Amino acid sequence: MEAFLADIHFLPFIYGLNTLLALYLIFADRKDATTTMAWIMILYLIPGFGLLLYLILSQNLSRRKLFKVSPDEESKQDFLMAYQVESMDEDEFFYPNEITRKWSSMIRLNQIYAKSFLTTNNDVELLTDGRQQFHRMMQDIRHAKKRIHVCYFIIKNDGVGTKFIDLLTKKAEEGVEVRLLMDALGSKQITAAKLRRFKQAGGQYAFFFKPFIRHLYFRINYRNHRKIVVIDDEIGYTGGFNVAREYLGYKKKFGYWRDSHLRICGDAVISLNKRFMLDWRYASSDMADYDPFAEAAEATVDNEDGTVPIQIVSCGPESPKQEVKQAFMKMITSAEKRIYIQTPYFVPDRPVLETLIMAAQSGIDVRVMIPCMPDHPFVYRTTLYNAGELIQAGVKIYIYEHGFLHAKTLTVDGEVSTVGSTNFDIRSFRLNFETNAFLYDRRFAAAMEEQFHRDMLLSREYTAEDREHISAKEYILESISRLLTEIL
Description:
18 helices; two-stranded parallel sheet; alpha/beta
């Protein structure tokens, strides 16, 4: 009884703290209004625990400059961007194909809003099978002569992860400069002991947002979700595959793992390398002698031998711009015929949902493909709820049934495509550090659409009739899940 009374007397103190935090959210933190209201609801519905959730999940990084660029590097970037923008404005820019010229307004958006250069001399290979992708990448790493830069969200301490780290160790022993960057939470299985031989061989490694106390993650909501590998400054990999057994289809729970990844040769590799080095500098506090900015200033200016034009666009919680999301929305609003989306998590914010609804109601063929199973049940229920809303607007929803769909792709009108680490969800748009390649090429877009149609043969359409027959339990879980998407 005394303990119960003590708890009652403690409640005014908790609610007082919640009120102070609510005032801070409204007047100082300046989050999105919907997110602010969601947090206030949580604070008062579950006092005490809600406060703890906020401290763990909702630090504001948008006022911090995480990624350092020297004045000299900044001037090189500004020079290159100004040259490219001016040449386009004055119609002196060499467009390698008619698609690039047609989509020049989107290119301009990425240039100005995301500071993303357009590179035009790239060769690209689309990789959709995990074993094929891993074998191809390992083969390229074996042939490395100068340096290898690796950034992954997840590397696991399993047979695949061990094989990968062993090869990086071997290359370091050969004298190749190897830098390995991992997200501290996603790659928590990779310990200092696991990397001892790698470090002794001369390899360098760092963890992004490494906690001061192991397993105590106060930045649990902010993860480096990028997947970037750059080999000898000539070959780059980016997309959805991480390094673990499940990504090669060796985990029974998921079965076949369907993902999308790019192997790029050309100047877009410089952009990937620049992104890697910015992340590396922050995580390792190593400014490093190697300067991809210098290479960028010399490249991409007069490339008239191009094949696939590419822009590399990154986003993260250090910036309020949501650069990849804005590029997605530009693609969708510019569509004239069809929009194909593949994503494992479909939890976009209201503007993205409305944009897709508007496209479908304008007569555009909008198709969204999602997986048949959850790896995050909470998010999956929200995905189905959002799919139901799109179905009512005329969007066709397909559920991939040949394993787990993890691809993060968008293709519009058979002309423009994007492949990368960004899901169609609020977490990717606002909280994770992400990177996507945007490709302006009809042949590549055709390959993307062809793959989508092959995946449709392994999918079933999710219809309005399916939505009418969901159980009461599913309805309740979906309703609760969608309310929390703004904070989780």
